[in-house]
UniProtKB/TrEMBL annotation, chain A:
Name of the protein in question: ABC transporter ATP-binding protein
Gene3D superfamilies: P-loop containing nucleotide triphosphate hydrolases
Keywords attached to this entry: ATP-binding, Cell membrane, Ion transport, Iron, Iron transport, Membrane, Nucleotide-binding, Transport
Principal cellular location given in the protein's record: membrane
Organism name: Bilifractor porci
């Protein structure tokens, strides 16, 4: 067995002796970003609290750098592990600089007075999260995004080997989410800091993490690289999604398709149909799509949203059978929406379909800008 | 850019230090002024020149020397020491409960101490005729700890600030009821001293008591000052404090013991005194513009001393020769501060 930097072995976590999650077995290497995902109340925070020693493990061990976590003194652990918690901090009369400076706690003397070197580290930490301009502001008077950055700076200037973050992106808008995760990513890679966090946004988790831990029920539902974890089925099972779809390639989430006999046939390709699909979806109109090669951008979404999709093999001329199928749909639908896509030798038959639709008075054209 | 921001931090640091210095200079000035004023005024008026003579040369008429040395000086020092202790005890309780209106009086800790002291006084006087200060302080401490222990139990069950305070006030009432009960059935001769004491007063301070209080309070204040680093960490919340290396369990025990000793000492010598513990730390934090324990702890101590000496002056002089209870004055001055504080907090939400 490989020697792990951070190892949860046979760990059971919970409150007052009652385990919530049992038999956790996770090995983490130095400098990795590990993200806990799973439904609300699954126990992600409980795991993080146990790792950070706020809770006693009910069974098993947390081994950190070859030493059981309970063998560390609080002080030793403080110089190696920092946390960013979900609980709202409401310090009285403290500037952001003051809050960040508390990260120097394990390194200052008896009275906690900062040296010039400490001040330097505080400023450096604030620069690394792009918060240098916030220094003199009252911590209670800044926005959520700024607050998370300041708290991250606080953790950074504690100079830890491991940072634990409990849902650091909650309350943040998309720009600040991306910013925060980018900072974590670069920190993990450039300084070899190990990051263990919980996230709600599975799409972001997939993109930022080296390893994913799925927490559900009373056990770890899955653990591995995002590539191995993020297939459509595991995500649907993890969150019990029965009313929508998750696309593991792009990490996008879709509402369930509108079922029923198709009323509209969308004739598109090359991604030009996506907007039409979404618009129909929102209006609650069941639709069919075609003729899409299975490597077409439209196909990835049509297979999730369209009631019926006419497909063709990629890099082959569209076979006659597909044209026939599409012709059938044009006859049965009340409307045909044609988008603006190239028609060339491989799909020349589409011209026939357009004519047929025109003759039945069902054709409606749409450019990219309309819809 | 980097230099700019670094520069602004240094400017900020300088600005802060100047502000701290200013506050401490003002406190020191007020401290001296009130001491002089306090010695100077009373039923017997002694001019400043003669006072200096009496204090530094111990010369003057025997009556005047006795008034200054046996009555006024010990009383002033007592109110300074106990006022400081009270303010600090409030600051520690506010930190502990993460709640700005926690204080020894509001949480019923003073009443618990008062109850224990009253009972001991009544029964000890029966048996021995005189109660040593140590026993009084111990009794007050036991009473204070009993109330505190009860508050801690309640605080585990309810996390709301309001509920906790109501529980404290109720404990206060229960303790007062028991105290009244003991007084009602005590011999009249046993309770001669008790009445004025139980309403809170610095009168009757003597050098023995002052010395004793100075030692107890001096040691606890020094300990508190040494705790200012973990107190600062604790201000960010228990979990962050732990993640910074504070042994939270041990720290909480230390905090509650120290604040109980402080409020017990005050109660043993001067009876329960209200509002100082809430109003003074609040005013000091505002004045300093920070909640850093390293500066707030000494400022609260001196602020409490100045505040109590001032209140005692009013208590003695406002309706001379009739003396007011010290709590009457501290309430009149302190309660509006607390109301203002609550309004401000509401406004900032």
């Amino acid at each position: 067995m490989a020697e792990y930097y951070f190892h949860l072995s046979g760990l059971s976590v919970g409150y007052q002796g009652t385990p919530i999650i049992r038999e956790i077995e996770i090995g983490i290497h130095q400098g990795e970003i590990v993200t806990l995902i799973g439904p609300n109340g699954a126990g992600k925070s409980t795991i993080l609290k146990t790792i950070s020693r706020q809770l006693q493990p009910i069974d098993g061990n947390v081994v950190f750098d070859r030493k059981g976590i309970t063998a560390y003194t609080y002080k030793e652990l403080a110089s190696r592990m920092a946390v960013v918690l979900t609980e709202r901090m409401k310090p009285e009369l403290m500037t952001c600089h003051d809050v960040v400076a508390t990260g120097r706690y394990p390194y200052t003397g008896r009275l906690g007075i900062l040296t010039a070197e400490d001040e330097e580290k505080v400023e450096e930490a604030m620069r690394s999260v792009h918060a240098e301009e916030l220094g003199a502001r009252d911590f209670n008077a800044i926005s959520d995004g700024q607050r998370q950055r300041v708290l991250l700076a606080r953790a950074i200037c504690q100079e830890p080997d491991v940072i634990l973050l409990d849902e650091p992106t909650s309350f943040l808008d998309i720009r600040h989410k991306l910013e925060l995760l980018a900072i974590l990513r670069s920190m993990a890679k450039s300084r070899k800091i190990t990051v263990i966090m919980s996230l709600h946004e599975i799409d972001l988790a997939q993109k930022v993490s080296d390893k994913i831990v799925c927490v559900k029920g009373d056990h770890i539902f899955g653990y591995g690289t995002p590539e191995s974890i993020f297939d459509e089925k595991s995500i649907r099972d993890l969150y019990d999604i029965d009313n929508g779809y998750f696309d593991p390639l792009f990490g996008s989430i879709e509402l369930p398709r509108v079922e029923g006999d198709p009323q509209v046939f969308v004739l598109s390709s090359c991604g030009t149909g996506i907007r039409v699909y979404r618009s129909l979806q929102k209006q609650g109109i069941p639709f069919a799509a075609g003729i899409l090669a299975t490597n077409d951008l439209d196909y990835r979404l049509a297979r999730l949203l369209a009631v019926k999709t006419v497909t063709a093999a990629p890099f082959e001329p569209v076979p006659e059978q597909a044209y026939a199928e599409a012709g059938e749909l044009i006859r049965s639908c009340q409307k045909v929406i044609l988008t603006d896509f190239p028609i060339a030798s491989g799909n020349a038959g589409v011209r026939r379909l357009i004519r047929a639709a025109q003759e039945e008075g069902k054709l409606e054209k749409t450019g990219l800008q309309e819809v | 850019m980097d230099h700019g921001s670094a520069g602004s931090f240094h400017e900020e640091n300088f600005r802060r230090r100047s502000r701290y210095t200013l506050v401490f200079v003002l406190l020191a000035a007020a401290f001296c002024a009130i001491i002089v004023l306090n010695i100077n005024t009373g039923n017997v008026n002694i001019p400043l020149g003669r006072i200096l003579n009496i204090i530094f040369a111990r010369s003057g008429s025997v009556d005047e020397v006795n008034i200054v040395w046996k009555i006024r000086l010990p009383r002033i020092l007592m109110s300074a020491i106990l006022g400081g202790a009270l303010a600090l005890s409030g600051f520690l309780l506010q930190t502990f409960f993460e709640n700005p209106i926690a204080g020894p009086f509001v949480l019923g800790i003073s009443s618990g101490a008062k109850m224990a002291v009253a009972i001991v006084m009544i029964y000890f006087i029966d048996m021995f005729g005189k109660v040593p200060s140590v026993i009084l302080i111990l009794a007050a401490f036991v009473g204070a700890m009993a109330s505190t222990g009860f508050i801690l139990l309640v605080s585990k069950a309810v996390h709301q600030m309001a509920a906790l305070l109501v529980a404290g006030i109720m404990i206060g009432y229960i303790c007062s009821a028991i105290t009244e009960f003991a007084i009602t059935f005590a011999e009249d001769s046993d309770i001669v001293n008790l009445h004025s004491w139980s309403q809170g007063s610095f009168s009757g301070s003597n050098w023995g008591n002052v010395g004793f209080a100075a030692v107890v309070v001096g040691i606890t204040v020094a300990l508190t000052f040494l705790l200012s680093k973990p107190i600062g960490a604790y201000q960010l919340g228990e979990h962050y404090a732990q993640s910074m290396g504070v042994n939270v369990k041990r720290f909480r025990v230390a905090l509650i013991l120290i604040s109980s000793i402080l409020s017990a000492t005050v109660t043993a010598f001067a009876g329960p005194i209200s509002f100082v513990g809430i109003a003074v730390p609040f005013l000091m934090k505002r004045a300093l513009g920070t909640s850093k324990p390293l500066v707030v702890i000494p400022a609260s101590f001196f602020g409490g001393a100045v505040f109590c000496m001032f209140c005692d002056l009013i208590a003695r002089m406002a309706f001379a020769p009739t003396e007011l209870n010290i709590s009457t004055v501290t309430s009149v001055l302190g309660a509006p501060v607390v109301i203002y504080m609550l309004i401000r907090r509401q406004g900032s939400r």
